[in-house]
Amino acid sequence: CPECGATHRADHLVEDGTDIEEAESLGTERVAGIIAEHDITCPTCGTGLAGESVETFNLMFETSIGPGSSSRGYLRPETAQGMFVEFPRLAEYARNQLPFGVAQIGRGYRNEISPRRSLIRVREFTMAELEHFVDPESDAPPIEQVEDVSVPLYSAAAQDGDGVGGVTWTTIGEALADGTITSEWVAYYLGIAKRWYDRMGVDMDRFRYRQHLSGELSHYASDCWDAEAEIDGNWIEITGFADRGAYDLSKHDAHSEEDYSVFKAYDEPRTAERPSVDPDMSYLGPEFGGAAGDVADELAALAARDPSAFEDSEVTVEVDGERYAVPTDATGFAVREKTETGEHVTPHVIEPAFGIGRVLYTVLDHAYREDEIEGESRSYLALPDELAPTFVGVFPLMDKDGLGERAREIAADLREAGLAVTYDDSGNIGRRYRRQDEVGTPYCVTVDYESLEEGTVTVRERDSTEQQRVAIDELPARLAALRAGESFGG
């Protein structure tokens, strides 16, 4: 901003000031034009930003390693690369059998220009990523497990405005059949995740899977979908699902001395003609000195990669930036018959990546409710039972005449039954109900004089505020059944 000096993410300004949802995929000139066209102003001081430069910015956190600043490093923007670097050891742990998956929960760091909106856009965050390594030729997901799962898809075609429209509800099987989703593995995880979001209480009227446009598709991805949730009128990415292909492992393999492939054995040995070299080291040694061994290795790699390179009288390879010309006769190049028991396969990677903070924020936002009880406003969290921090609150109607002692005994019995219990005897009973409603406690148990006389308690359900009398000796089993999914009215 020319007035206050504040720095803002231009794509976010465009998204907040227009109907454009994915400005990140637009070029800098286009974003600058939209800012001028819509007279977008600085959120800090209100100064117009038309004509101000829009520049690309590296979101990776740069730092110095060790004393001084001679060694530059970066905080990881994702947990994935650590799993890729360790792939040879992970493959060994999996007995070199595909497919196998590796999951990690950890911190990531992004040097955000303008952090905002609580857990939505921060510089340090927790993510949960799964790298599923598969053989693209033979490994297929159990798609039958999710083919009937209904999902809200916002395809790239719909976003391009070709008349297809907005979000379309369809099944995973139908989306694969009509080509909307191109990767079976991505489709499988979209179906699995949809069921999980349902369990977490995400409002499906405020949820969608959005396909990346070609302009925003990551360099490593052949297909990518984001799970997005609507919060305060804005769509927020909470999870990414990408088919990363063999990009990452191929890059690590090319620039390290480790083997990033997996040996895949054939059912029976096969005979095939394979190009190979047998370099004449009596020529390479005197000619190239200490580089002779590396030249020989490069010749072998070139023969496997591009046999046609040996058709001329001379072959050129590159070692550490230096080019070496070798007479073809000295390479020992030939196509030889070879019996093979298997082949080395570079796995493809399927990656679901969950932003834990954003998922948590979505669950809380979608669970928030307001209503009116007997003329008094009430706010509560309609959390699923398995997510609620406390499953049941236990209250004495008042802390006298033995009610408090009996309530504490009941609370202890419920804890022994494996239930998460809170005990509260402070304030009137209505205030205690409200406190538990606000933190999402599904059920409250009230111990009153009838409890002492008849051996029953009142059980109140959070969302409906309905109440039932339950025998104290049946209470643990009744609450356990409710936690297992039994209806409160059942």
Write a brief caption for the model.
By secondary structure, the chain is α+β, with helices and mostly antiparallel strands. The chain is 28% helix and 30% strand.
List keywords for this structure.
single chain, 490 residues, alpha+beta, eight-stranded mixed β-sheet, 21 strands, 28% helix, 30% strand
Characterization of the model:
The chain has 490 residues and is α+β, with helices and mostly antiparallel strands. The protein folds into four domains: 1-57, no CATH class; 62-248 and 348-357, Bira Bifunctional Protein, Domain 2 (BirA Bifunctional Protein, domain 2, 2-Layer Sandwich), CATH 3.30.930; 269-338, no CATH class; 387-483, Rossmann fold, CATH 3.40.50.800. Helices cover 28% and strands 30% of the residues. The strands form six sheets. Strands 3-4-14-9-8-7-5-6 form an eight-stranded mixed β-sheet. Strands 18-17-19-20-21 form a five-stranded mixed β-sheet, sandwiched between helices. It has a two-stranded antiparallel ribbon with strand order 1-2. Helix 1 packs across helix 2 and helix 9 crosses helix 10 (292-305). The radius of gyration is 31 Å and the shape is elongated.
User: How much is the average pLDDT?
Assistant: 92
| Percent in strands | 25-35%
**Spans of at least 5 consecutive residues with low confidence:** none
Distance between the termini: 61 Å
